[in-house]
Structures are given as structure tokens and as C-alpha cells.
From TrEMBL:
The keyword DNA damage does not apply. It comes from the Bacteria. GO terms for molecular function: transferase activity. It comes from Bradyrhizobium sacchari. Transmembrane segments: none annotated. Residues 1-74 form the GST N-terminal domain. PROSITE patterns: GST_NTER. InterPro entries: Glutathione-S-Trfase_C_sf (IPR036282), Glutathione_S-Trfase (IPR040079), Glutathione_S-Trfase_N (IPR004045), Thioredoxin-like_sf (IPR036249). The lineage of its organism: Bacteria, Pseudomonadati, Pseudomonadota, Alphaproteobacteria, Hyphomicrobiales. This is Glutathione S-transferase. Keywords: Transferase. CDD domains: GST_N_GTT1_like.
Length: 210
């Protein structure tokens, strides 16, 4: 049985793949009280995955693991496919270039004590997000999805990051990204993931729409 700790990208992928899972939602503000979660990830961040004896953290590594171990070729791109490099690049860019920096923006602008807000490092993180976003926009000028004509896990990774920016109020999508997010979030698996991820669903309902 697969158990996911924390809502988000991993649940979306599991719904896309049609895999059964148990979701253990994690309240990050009270994570120190969640013994089951801390036994899985003593570092206290989400997401984490348990698959039998296997325990993993790092969202993109978890996506790659699930695709390789349980994906039956769905939503991944094979190494001999011309789209492989683009797929892999955007799969990782979603976290390393977009969601990671966006989390730093969120902390620097909204969660840090007043006196520490808008430090140089926060502006750097916002600029990093913006420059990587430029690569996404250029790619979407040529094709509907980041690996080309078909939806892949790279689109889950990047869509998640853009939605994080949108919902935290730190990014307003332009028309290219709005159209793209309309495509990716119209998927039935996204709707199922939102039903599973009740805290995210409530957060999205309070947030700006597309
Ligand atoms: N690079 C990690 C980042 C995960 C991350 O930043 N998670 C946030 C929530 S979106 C978190 O758990 N923050 C609390 C913490 O780091 O203690 C990944 O992709 O899994």
C-alpha cells in the first residue's frame, strides 16, 4: 500500500496513474505533534512517501520513483524519445527553479518577522522564479505541454509551482500560463486529487482564480 504524507503533486500523479493510496494530511504548523509523520520523515517536511519498506522524501524524486516503479510508461517520456530532455528539464525545473524559490518568496514576504521581510534574498528568489518562468512561457509558445503534444509528469511539476505562486498571491499568471493551467487543471485526475486534498481545495477556494 502506498501512503502519501502531505497534499499536492504526489497525489495528483497517483490519481493520474490510477493507483490506490492512503493520504495522511500533514498540518505543518503542528507537525511536531504528528508522530506517524515524523517517524517517516524526521526532517518534518512534505511530501513523503511510504511504499512497503521504502520511504522517500523530495517531491520530484518521488514522482520519478512512482513513474518508474508503478507507472507502466504513463506520463513519463522514455530516454530514446526526442522529448526526453525537455521532459526531464521541466520536471525538475518545476521544483528547483519555480516551487523552491516560490517557497522562499512566501517565507520572505509573508511568514518572516516584519523586520526581516523583503530582504535581498527574497528578491533574488522572486527573480529566479521569474527567469525560469520565462523558459516555461517560451516552451508553451511552441507546444501545449512541456514535453510536446502530450501531458506528462513535467506538467504536474510546473503546474503545481505556478498554482503555489498564484495561491500565495506572489505571482499573477499571464495569458499563456492561464491557458496552460486551464488545460492541466481541467483533467479529471486533478479534480479527483482536489477532492482527496481537502485543505488544498479549501485554500484554492479562498485564492485568486485563473
Ligand atoms: N525540495 C522539497 C521541498 C519541500 C518543501 O519545501 N515542502 C514544504 C511545504 S511545500 C515544507 O514541508 N515546509 C516545511 C519545512 O520545510 O519544514 C521537495 O520538493 O519535496
Amino acid at each position: 500500500m502506498l501512503t502519501v504524507y502531505g497534499e499536492g503533486r504526489v497525489v495528483w500523479l497517483l490519481e493520474e496513474l490510477g493507483l490506490a493510496y492512503r493520504l495522511h494530511p500533514v498540518d505543518l504548523l503542528a507537525a511536531e505533534l504528528d508522530r506517524e509523520f515524523l517517524a517517516i520523515n524526521p526532517a518534518g517536511f512534505i511530501p513523503a512517501l511510504q511504499d512497503g519498506e521504502t520511504i522517500m522524501v523530495e517531491s520530484i524524486a518521488i514522482l520519478e520513483y512512482l513513474l518508474a516503479r508503478h507507472g507502466s510508461g504513463l506520463l513519463a517520456v522514455a530516454p530514446d524519445d526526442p522529448a526526453f530532455a525537455s521532459y526531464l528539464q521541466f520536471l525538475h525545473l518545476g521544483e528547483a527553479g519555480l516551487a523552491g524559490p516560490m517557497n522562499a518568496v512566501l517565507v520572505g514576504r509573508q511568514l518572516a518577522p516584519e523586520a526581516e521581510r523583503n530582504a535581498r534574498v527574497t528578491r533574488w528568489a522572486r527573480e529566479t522564479f521569474e527567469s525560469r518562468l520565462g523558459l516555461v512561457i517560451r516552451r508553451l509558445a511552441d507546444c501545449p505541454y512541456l514535453a510536446g503534444d502530450r501531458f506528462t509528469a513535467a506538467d504536474i511539476s510546473v503546474s503545481y509551482a505556478l498554482l503555489l505562486g498564484l495561491r500565495t498571491g506572489n505571482y499573477v499568471p499571464g495569458s499563456t500560463e492561464r491557458d496552460y493551467l486551464a488545460r492541466t487543471t481541467a483533467r479529471p485526475a486533478y479534480a479527483r486529487a482536489m477532492e482527496s486534498c481537502q485543505a488544498t481545495k479549501a485554500w484554492a477556494a479562498r485564492s485568486p482564480g485563473l
